[in-house]
Amino acid sequence: MRSADELNRRSATELARLIRDKSISPIEVLQAHLQAIERLNPKVNAICTLAAESAMAAAKRAEQAIMAGDPIGPLHGLPIGIKDVTPTAGIRTTFGSPLYANNVPTEDAAVVSRLKQAGAIILGKTNTPEFAAGANTVNRVFGATRNPWNLALSAGGSTGGGAAAVACGMIALAEGTDFGGSLRIPAAFCGVVGLRPTAGLVPRYPTPLPWDVSTVHGPMGRTIEDTALMLDAMTGDGRLSPISVPAPWQNLATVVTQAQDLSDVRIGFSPDIAGVGVDPAIGSSCRTAVSRLADYAATVEELEFSLADGRDAYLALRGATMVGRFFERLDETDKFEPNLKSNIESGLKLTMKEVAAAERKRAELWNRWRVLFERVDLLFTPTMSVPPFPVEQNYPDTIAGRKMSTYIDWIASTFLVTLSGLPALSVPCGRTATGLPVGLQIVGPRFAEPKMLRAAKFVERMNPIGWPPIVGIQSRG
């Protein structure tokens, strides 16, 4: 019998292989992760609802399938976390709101069904700000999720619980959502990989806005190969989504695993696409990581590329989207946290002319990206402008010593990518002098996930960051 720590330091890809080979059992893997949750979750508060009983029943079924020689999926026996805004049949889903504190859905979200079909075991729900409206994971139901690299700091959001749990080895993989950067922000803060896929690749159901391309479900993992493995399992089955599109690749995990170099990849690096400033330590780490990709035959150039004029358009369209999402509760905004309440109220104040102007600006920026991608294949830029800040703060006041012009400027480098509906990921590229992870954002055109993940694999290879000190493991295997 292997120790829990030995299993928890394995990647999801390796665990899946060992389960298929019958070298370890799904029950053994689940028990190891439950032990990690028991030891670490009281400190980090990443798992907000634990489904240990149903997970053990699923692990036993997974074990029986292995022993019987039944066909199994790519995630067979892997314990994963589902964000607490994504419905799970029979497992409490609170949306981080007192209004739904005891809500137990009777139907899985489409993405959860996809993950179960791939053999994943739902171990629990991961913490999120109320209705995922915020980039610091704290709510009135469960409190704050803390950063495993420094418990005094924010884990980011809104998939902060998933990022912290993956970083600690409490779960093998995490499902999350991304609207303004909710997969990429906590991935950068917690030192894991978070991927916002091309809209339509992962089915979105249920949702009050099924034609919306700004919010997507996506994967989170400790490694690039793990993230690719999970994305493969999430894509497909568009019967419940009117914007669903099939993945134009057969096996993304294989593409990533077999990558030898980046000789066919033209990389552009822009140090500040949002025009809000970047913490010098973050900018330096990202620039160094990108320059080293030339060692793998990539063509690398630093260039000027700004989307700063899109910040107002994003805020307008975010407000309009929030009005649509919470249309039935527009007379109950006083029951919401300040972040969501202000988003809805700003949306209600919009004129049709302002919405139209925002849509025109969005079109202009998309064409700006289109022209850029004729010059380079991928754009690299810092995921975050600031390092993790004290968990008690809703958001930081300054960026690189300069006061923000709006409360949301500090995540502009991620939401300006969302504005054009492009795929993007955050991969760790180093640590600051105080030991905090730094995330590098990689953006590509629609369906560029294979090239993005290949490039990220080499970033990861050259910049190992290890495990958070709370875990007590010195290397990441």
Describe this structure in words.
With 477 residues, the protein is an alpha+beta fold. It has a single domain (4-471), classed as Amidase signature (AS) domain (Amidase signature (AS) enzymes, Alpha-Beta Complex). Helix content is 36%, strand content 16%. The chain has helices spanning 4-8, 12-20, 26-44, 52-68, 110-117, 160-168, 184-190, 224-234, 252-257, 280-291, 311-325, 338-348, 352-375, 412-418, 449-462; strands spanning 47-50, 79-83, 121-126, 138-139, 143-144, 146-147, 150-154, 173-178, 193-196, 216-221, 266-269, 299-302, 378-382, 398-399, 402-403, 424-431, 437-443. Strands 1-3-2-8-10-9-16-17-13-11-12 form an eleven-stranded mixed beta sheet, with helices on both faces. α6 packs parallel to α7 and α11 packs across α13 (352-375). It is globular, with a radius of gyration of 21 Å. The two termini are 19 Å apart.
Briefly summarize what is shown.
This protein is α+β, with helices and mostly antiparallel strands.
Write the layout of secondary structure elements.
Elements: H1 4-8, H2 12-20, H3 26-44, E1 47-50, H4 52-68, E2 79-83, H5 110-117, E3 121-126, E4 138-139, E5 143-144, E6 146-147, E7 150-154, H6 160-168, E8 173-178, H7 184-190, E9 193-196, E10 216-221, H8 224-234, H9 252-257, E11 266-269, H10 280-291, E12 299-302, H11 311-325, H12 338-348, H13 352-375, E13 378-382, E14 398-399, E15 402-403, H14 412-418, E16 424-431, E17 437-443, H15 449-462
Parallel strand pairs: 2-3, 2-8, 11-12, 11-13
Antiparallel strand pairs: 1-3, 4-5, 6-7, 8-10, 9-10, 9-16, 13-17, 14-15, 16-17
